[in-house]
Structures are given as structure tokens and as C-alpha cells.
């Protein structure tokens, strides 16, 4: 499985979800259904692709965006948020990792800002275990997935730098880096691009 196949699966799973507060669970269920019909190697490849995308979303500006939405994020919360960015699908994900402030353009994020849906809808931790659960469903063995992942031991050549670190509590710096997200979640109407 290549990244293009991974994103095709994610986009198909997303289209099969209705966008409510359980969006992550719906996407995960749709992905698991597709993966259990795949080979074990494809399930392992899916995990490799997921990990690569997840690494790409580890950026300080995205962490600041999560904090704008939620007020505070722990390491674990940010991990689930990054999974949620993957759950937005390929087009949105690629745009957001290049320019984190474009998260403000996402209809789901705009609905969160208006209070129409819970802000934790983008917390999609459940997507992190899609491959392991599909593998277990096919093999009947909970440990088999982790053993297989360990044997693969492939280097992650797509890992990217999280960019320049900055103080997430420095509201002026957060506004400078994320003006539209700041306007959306803090009501900061200063210069919006």
C-alpha cells in the first residue's frame, strides 16, 4: 500500500460518515471494515502510512491550533488531534500541514467555533488503533499485530521536523502564526489574511 492508497481508504471511510460528534468512531468503523477485507500485509502497510501522516502533523503551530480550540492539550490529546487531522481526509490534511492556519477554513472547525458541535469531534484517538484492531479481527490474536510491526523494523524516511518551537502560551506569537484560528476561537479581529 502506498500513501495514495492509504488516503483513498481514509477519504472513502470519511464519505461514509455523517459528520456528527461520533465522526472518528464512524471513520474508524468504516476503515476497519475495509481493512479486514485486505491482506495482513496491507493492514501493516496502512499502519505504516498512518504513522507517516501522523508524524507530518507533529508541528508546533498545529499544537497551538489545538490549544486555541480546546484551551489546553496534553501530549496524548495532541496525538488524538493529529489523528483527527488525518480523519479530515487527504486534501484537507495536505493543506493544513503546509499552512496550519487553514484549519480555520474547515467546515467542521467552523461548526465547532459556532458551538454547533463539540470541540472534541476532532479528537480521533480511535483512528490510531484501526490497523491493530483489524489485524486482531483477522488473526484472532491481539499480539500478532505488534509482533509483525516489530519484525518489519522499517526506517521512517518521511519523518519531518516539527518546525520552530515557540511558546504556546505566548498569545501574541500564536496570533501572529495563526491569525484566522485566533479570530475564530478567541474573537481576535485584528488583521485576518
What is the average per-residue confidence, as pLDDT, rounded to a whole number?
A: 87
Helix- and strand-based class? Answer: mainly alpha
For the secondary structure, the number of strands is 0
What's the end-to-end separation, in Å?
38 Å
Major sheet description: none
Number of domains: 1
Strand content: under 5%
Q: Residue ranges: pLDDT <50 for 5 or more in a row?
A: 189-193
The rounded Rg comes to 17 Å
Continuous helix count? 11
What report would you give on this structure?
With 193 residues, the protein is mainly alpha-helical. It has one domain (3-186). 61% of the residues lie in helices and 0% in strands. α1 (3-15) packs across α2 (23-36). The longest helix has 17 residues, at 40-56. It is globular and about 50 Å long.
Question: Which keywords apply here?
Answer:
single chain; 193 residues; mainly alpha; 0% strand; globular; disordered C terminus
